UniProtKB/TrEMBL annotation:
<keyword id="KW-0633">Potassium transport</keyword>
<keyword id="KW-0406">Ion transport</keyword>
<feature type="domain" description="K+ potassium transporter C-terminal">
    <location>
        <begin position="116"/>
        <end position="329"/>
    </location>
</feature>
<dbReference type="InterPro" id="IPR053952">
    <property type="entry name" value="K_trans_C"/>
</dbReference>
<keyword id="KW-0813">Transport</keyword>
<dbReference type="InterPro" id="IPR053951">
    <property type="entry name" value="K_trans_N"/>
</dbReference>
<dbReference type="InterPro" id="IPR003855">
    <property type="entry name" value="K+_transporter"/>
</dbReference>
<dbReference type="GO" id="GO:0005886">
    <property type="term" value="C:plasma membrane"/>
</dbReference>
<feature type="domain" description="K+ potassium transporter integral membrane">
    <location>
        <begin position="9"/>
        <end position="104"/>
    </location>
</feature>
<dbReference type="GO" id="GO:0015079">
    <property type="term" value="F:potassium ion transmembrane transporter activity"/>
</dbReference>
<keyword id="KW-0812">Transmembrane</keyword>
<dbReference type="Pfam" id="PF22776">
    <property type="entry name" value="K_trans_C"/>
</dbReference>
<dbReference type="Pfam" id="PF02705">
    <property type="entry name" value="K_trans"/>
</dbReference>
<feature type="transmembrane region" description="Helical">
    <location>
        <begin position="6"/>
        <end position="30"/>
    </location>
</feature>
<keyword id="KW-1133">Transmembrane helix</keyword>
<protein>
    <submittedName>
        <fullName>Potassium transporter 2</fullName>
    </submittedName>
</protein>
<feature type="transmembrane region" description="Helical">
    <location>
        <begin position="65"/>
        <end position="85"/>
    </location>
</feature>
Length: 331
């Protein structure tokens, strides 16, 4: 057993060193802007030395060097299954998203009520209305007075400054009180607790309402970068509860009056509380799919999903404010 681990460790270390040398030569050309001849000389010198050690480790394949290759194949299979099913889920959401006209048509005529509070609908889509929200409204004909479609994206940078974290836009006219917010995190950013996340999101919405210009048709779906730290808020504590009022400059214009009414509606909704609406998905392969696809989707991905932490845990959503919408994805 010790010999197997010894040969396996040697092959793993030499493979990492050889791959690192190859990638470093690419970084020298693409990122450091060094001459290609210098990168080629670097690769030829260090790559040749490491290739000798790598070939010697390969010769020990049957004596234990197969172990890291087997572990790498297992981990790669797990990541490929997860990636494949995730892409299929996103394509399903993309093809089944609901139009804006459908959302704007919801109202008292159809028996749809607007209840007090803010509804945060989590989705992977950056445009359109997700299918899980249509399922939510179909089964429970009511949604919140202020509706926010939240999309969390991880960008390939270490940190995203707080002033650039939120991209905010409208979904429909201002009177509908529906918004879209894309929240961006770097790969080294730490997710905030739910109270900080909620307060910064509401502050970003308030700043967007104050700074957004009215489109000619009354709708504006463009996204704007909003810094929550720039919002002026007035807070007071009453009986242990924190009340937040958004300060609005006095003005006589019609635009100022609309802005004040929109901010007051946002404030009333924040006082009523926030509900987090997440999709609880089950993925199935289409009838007639290949045996490999059925095994990957019906068994492999669903097994991984059941044994991984849910999005409500990753997003730190309190159970008392969580609304889960069941969805079956046929991919």
């Amino acid at each position: 057993m010790t010999l197997i681990l010894w040969h396996g460790t040697g092959l793993a270390v030499m493979t990492v060193m050889l791959v690192t040398t190859c990638l470093t030569s690419l970084v020298m050309v693409l990122c450091w802007r060094k001459p290609p001849l210098l990168a080629l000389a670097f690769l030829a010198f260090f790559g040749a030395v490491e290739s000798f050690y790598f070939s010697a480790s390969i010769m020990k394949f049957l004596e234990g060097a197969w172990l890291p290759i087997l572990l790498a194949l297992i981990l790669m299979t797990v990541m490929l299954v997860w990636h494949y099913a995730t892409i299929k889920k996103y394509e399903f959401d993309l093809h089944n998203k609901v139009s804006l006209d459908w959302l704007l048509a919801l109202g008292p005529v159809l028996g749809i009520a607007r209840v007090p509070g803010i509804g945060l609908v989590y989705t992977d889509l950056i445009s359109g209305i997700p299918a899980n929200f249509s399922r939510f409204v179909t089964n429970l004909p009511a949604f919140h007075a202020v509706l926010v479609f939240v999309c969390i994206k991880h960008v390939p940078v270490p940190h995203v400054p707080p002033s650039e974290r939120h991209l905010v836009g409208r979904v429909g006219p201002p009177t509908h009180h529906s918004y879209r917010c894309i929240v961006r995190y770097g790969y080294r950013d730490v997710h905030q607790d739910v109270d900080s996340f909620e307060s910064e999101l509401i502050a970003s919405l308030a700043e967007f309402i104050r700074s957004s210009s009215r489109a000619p048709n009354g709708e504006d779906e463009r996204l704007a970068v909003i810094g929550a730290a720039e919002v002026d808020v007035e807070a007071e504590c009453v009986k242990g509860k924190k009340k937040v009022r958004f300060l609005v400059e006095e003005g006589a214009g019609a635009g100022d009056q609309e802005m004040r009414e929109e901010l007051e509606e946002l404030w009333r909704a924040s006082e009523a509380g926030t509900a987090f609406i997440l999709g609880n998905s089950h993925v199935k392969a289409k009838p007639g799919s290949s045996v490999l696809k059925r095994v990957v989707i019906n068994f492999g991905y669903n097994f991984l999903r059941r044994n991984c932490r849910g999005p409500e845990v990753a997003l730190k959503v309190p159970p008392a404010s969580l609304l889960e919408v069941g969805m079956v994805y046929v991919v």
